[in-house]
Design a protein that fits this description.
The chain is of the alpha/beta class. The protein is built from eight helices and eight strands, in the order βαβαβαβαββαβαβαα.
Length: about 220
């Protein structure tokens, strides 16, 4: 894997051909497969669950599966995704009754925990959790739907979290999710992101490999 990871979100894939779509983006150079789980409760949409994750894992997906839980409650579903082959499991603090307990639960089940912060969610949550996290996800759209427009204030949040991570001395990934595309991925990288979720920008393009290459070229041009 490169230092900067590209994580295509399968929310924008053709679900009738999901296995082939995942193979295609991995062949195009993806580092992670981003798996958006929505429950029509915490967010106003309903997507996919552990069975789909397990099916991809059994298919032999070569890239780690990065599960983003937009569900409430969180703890009940964590073990299912761990068994289904997730590498990272990220959740929203507002969706957990006990954030520290959820982080520990994810780790106990052999996965790497992440905390996702919505556009209006303060960074205060990190005061007590960053030392236990492997990933921080900054949402650059409000969660619930793919294809939304990037919210520019996310760049300032990325910069602030990057400072916290660097000060911690720990190897914590800083992920950005929502409206990321070739035209703004460099700004996200400049702000400190090292992991980039892109759904429609990749799956909506005619050539996945060309799009991933263009994204990497923008990051490399920093």
């Amino acid at each position: 894997m490169s230092a900067h990871w590209i994580a295509p979100s399968i929310l924008s894939a053709d679900f009738a051909r999901l296995g082939e779509e995942v193979d295609a983006v991995i062949g195009a150079g993806a580092d992670l497969i981003h798996f958006d789980v929505m429950d029509n409760h915490y967010v106003p949409n309903l997507t996919i669950g552990p069975l789909v994750c397990e099916a991809l894992h059994k298919r032999g997906v070569k890239a780690p599966i990065d599960v983003h839980l937009m569900v409430r409650p969180v703890d009940r579903i964590v073990p299912d995704f761990a068994r289904a082959g997730a590498r990272f499991i990220t959740f929203h603090p507002e969706a957990s009754e006990h954030v520290d307990r959820t982080i520990e639960l994810i780790r106990e089940h052999g996965c790497q925990p992440g905390l996702a912060l919505n556009p209006a969610t303060p960074l205060d949550w990190l005061d007590y959790t960053l030392e236990k996290l492997d990933l921080v996800l900054i949402m650059s759209v409000n969660p619930g739907f793919g294809g939304q427009k990037f919210i520019p204030s996310a760049l300032g949040k990325l910069e602030a979290v990057r400072r916290r991570i660097d000060a911690s001395g720990r190897a914590v990934r800083l992920e950005v999710d929502g409206g990321v595309k070739v035209e703004n991925i460099q700004a996200c990288a400049r702000a400190g992101a090292d992991t980039f979720v892109a759904g429609s920008a990749i799956f909506g393009s005619p050539d996945y490999a060309a799009t991933v290459r263009a994204m990497r070229a923008q990051i490399a041009a920093l």
